[in-house]
């Protein structure tokens, strides 16, 4: 199946000489949720802006469903809905008029039923006649999403979609995104909230210094780069790790009640079986054990540290 977005060797150097993108290549498949992670200044917003036709690339190509973003701009842009990081909207317009106007910008005929559905899906229907200026930050963010969906795009870009939104609203917006995916909409999001990517994404891309470090399925990324920890809950606290267990590089918890063993999930042998035998031989008894996997946040931090 051909990708719905294809980025090939994309570069962008601004007039100041700053290279924001450096040979980025990326394929995004239709119907997936793709999360783009990276620190401030990594190139996330420049990449999105270029794909959406808002930033002129220095080199490379971008196609959206086969349409070149430069030579066939109108056809490509019509397929895209963009929710920018900043809140841009007329403060004194009503919610209904703002969203309806956005639809008209794409030359779409009036469709009150579609506008109503979008507003209801985003829990904005009760505020359809309210002026934008009277809305909370979270509601304004949802109005921006409604505007982006007004012309029925196949692709939705969300640049930091839940910035400034409280936890409850953030989870509500996750449900909206999942519902959009269920209808076949392709979703690309950038986020500083690592749990957002971990919760929602099918695939994750990490960008740093304008270069795409890696792209992989979320589960595969965690499997390849994640570490697991085995925690042994001891029957009685110990002062130090016995020297006969030094080969395992064990850590002792602050309360001295747990031994912690970190191992590589990619290794052919984890060493757990031998460890448990050696712990018993050392006269240490434990009554419980549990394992935990490195979070996507820990993986991300390790990748951008260089």
TrEMBL record:
Claim: Aminoacyl-tRNA synthetase is one of the keywords in the record: no
GO molecular function: ATP binding; ATP hydrolysis activity
InterPro entries in the record: AAA+_ATPase, ABC_transporter-like_ATP-bd, ABC_transporter-like_CS, ABC_transporter_ATP-binding, P-loop_NTPase
Domain (ABC transporter) ranges: 5-234
Pfam families: ABC_tran
Domain of life, source organism: Bacteria
Keyword Ribonucleoprotein assigned: no
Annotated keywords: ATP-binding, Nucleotide-binding, Transport
Function description: Involved in beta-(1-->2)glucan export. Transmembrane domains (TMD) form a pore in the inner membrane and the ATP-binding domain (NBD) is responsible for energy generation.
Protein family: Belongs to the ABC transporter superfamily.
Name of this chain's protein: ABC transporter ATP-binding protein
Biological source species: Rhodopseudomonas palustris (strain ATCC BAA-98 / CGA009)
């Amino acid at each position: 199946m051909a990708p719905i977005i294809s980025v090939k060797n994309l570069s962008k150097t601004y007039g100041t000489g700053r290279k924001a993108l450096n040979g980025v290549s990326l394929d995004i498949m239709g119907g997936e949720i793709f999360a783009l992670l990276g620190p401030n200044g990594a190139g996330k917003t420049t990449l999105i802006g270029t794909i959406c036709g808002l930033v002129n690339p220095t080199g490379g190509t971008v196609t959206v469903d086969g349409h070149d973003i430069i030579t066939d701009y109108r056809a490509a842009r019509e397929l895209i809905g963009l929710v920018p990081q900043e809140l841009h909207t007329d403060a004194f317009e009503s919610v209904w008029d703002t969203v309806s106007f956005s639809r008209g910008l794409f030359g779409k005929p009036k469709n009150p039923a579609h506008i109503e559905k979008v507003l209801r899906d985003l829990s904005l229907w009760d505020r359809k006649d309210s002026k934008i200026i009277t809305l909370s930050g979270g509601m304004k963010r949802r109005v921006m999403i409604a505007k982006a969906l007004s012309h029925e795009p196949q692709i939705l870009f969300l640049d930091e979609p839940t910035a400034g939104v409280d936890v409850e609203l953030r989870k509500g917006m996750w449900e909206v995104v999942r519902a959009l995916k269920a209808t076949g909409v392709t979703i690309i999001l950038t986020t500083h909230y690592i749990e957002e990517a971990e919760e929602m994404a099918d695939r994750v891309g990490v960008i740093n210094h304008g270069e795409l470090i890696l792209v992989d399925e979320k589960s595969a990324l965690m499997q390849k780069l994640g570490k697991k920890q085995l925690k042994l809950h001891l029957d009685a606290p110990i002062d130090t790790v016995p020297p006969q267990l030094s080969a395992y590089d064990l850590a002792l918890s602050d309360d001295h009640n747990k031994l912690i063993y970190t191992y590589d999930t990619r290794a052919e042998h984890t060493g757990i079986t031998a460890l448990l035998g050696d712990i018993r031989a050392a006269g240490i008894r434990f009554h419980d054990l549990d394992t935990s996997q490195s979070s996507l946040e820990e993986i991300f931090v390790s990748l951008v540290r260089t």
